[in-house]
Amino acid sequence: MIVFLENALGFFIQLFPCALMIFLPFPREAYRFGRRTIIFGMMIVSAVMASLFSVALCLRDINKYPLHIILSNLSMFAAILFVLAAYISLVRESLLKKLMVFFIVLFYAASEFVLVNVIHSFIYPGLPDTTAYPYTPSFLLLYAASTALLLPLMLAVVIRPLKEYIRIIEPQNMKREFFSGSFSTFMYFVLMSYCDTLYGKTGFFYLDLPLLLFLTLNQIFIYWLIFRESVRRERDNEKRRTMEIQQLQYEKIIDEMENTRRMHHDLHHHYNTLNDMLDRGKTDEMKAYLSDIINTTVYRDSEVYCKNITVGGLLQYYVGLARDEGIRCKVRAECGELGIEPVDLTVLFGNAMENAIDACKKCTKNRWICIQVGMIQDSFAVEISNSCSEVHLNRGYKTENGFLPAEAFSSGRADIGYGLQSIDHTAKKYDGSAGFRFDSDKETFTARIRLNTHREI
Length: 457
Description:
- The structure is a single chain.
- The longest helix is centred in the middle third of the chain and has 71 residues, at 209-279.
- The protein folds into three domains: 2-235, no CATH class; 244-296; 309-452, Histidine kinase-like ATPase, C-terminal domain (Heat Shock Protein 90, 2-Layer Sandwich), CATH 3.30.565.
- It has helices at 2-21, 35-57, 67-90, 95-123, 137-168, 175-202, 209-279, 283-296, 309-324, 342-361, 416-429; strands at residues 328-333, 368-376, 379-387, 433-439, 444-452.
- It is built from eleven helices and five strands, in the order αααααααααβαββαββ.
- The chain is an alpha+beta fold.
- It is 64% helix and 9% strand.
């Protein structure tokens, strides 16, 4: 019974952390069931598989033929396949992303196996005892110690950046990284199997320790390059796409402002024409002229929010979009000429208003946006508040902490992570600042932005 428990516990210590880690890089909304339910289910599955593995090993006492070795290896392989199948079915994400995470966690399992065997060969030199069970008390203790040391390191150094990588990378952009990582893991397993065979024949496994250390460092370096390059490339692509969209929005707003100017010019011409007809008493011609204007001209309700043409045009554009969605808007804007580039104002208002509109659209009732724009000494200040049901915060941040930086928010709320980062980047460009706050009691999200206009007094 003690031998059974030792082998079952040893395999469980190896299997369960790996089964747990393959789920952690993905956000909660990607799970088909709750996180606690999945973790508890993986724990039960790992315990059952570990028990079956130990039962197969116990057959050695009743059969001289190595049936127990075949059955234990099959049960180990079946456990890995079952966990992989459950993982693929329980996570709603790209298959390429899920397989890449699986290969990385598989590399962790292989590294722990090699590390334990190397340390054991130093503590107990000589040929291995092929008649012993794989999880003797000494091996069991080493596996428990290595898991306690390596698992937190794996979570901090690999899983955490991998979570960011999975969040921002698109499947079509990760094919090169996927094949590089999977091939590297495969080669690691081949060489590990070769060294393990050599260990069983010669007992000088420690002579291969430099080779294994080199392979491990090489694997880590490859993954580091993959994450760094992929994250950098995706962020550059995201910035480029964002700037293209914002440039198109800016050009559209400029076109609408030009149309407004032309409409004012045409209206002035119509007034002069009507006034001339009135002076000459041509009422019938006036009626016909007015009828033509009414039939050929489409007027849009417009509201002048402030003297600054760019800010006023942006407010008019986005407030119009919000009202089209049935969102109540309250605007108070007082500003004139600013030392801020129109494109930067477009980035600021575009991201802030798009986030506000998207958040309001998710609210079932009480949809509203409140915008305040003005000058505070030499700073251009903007505060945009809106109804918001929830936000997603990154680890280490709490809503109770008041106004938070842009990096506190993840992309769970309509890609708010990227939008707030663009706002923060624009504010810092003008020696300003940006802070964001979510009030869960009032269900309100507030963005406060300050830009230094560098005006000389």
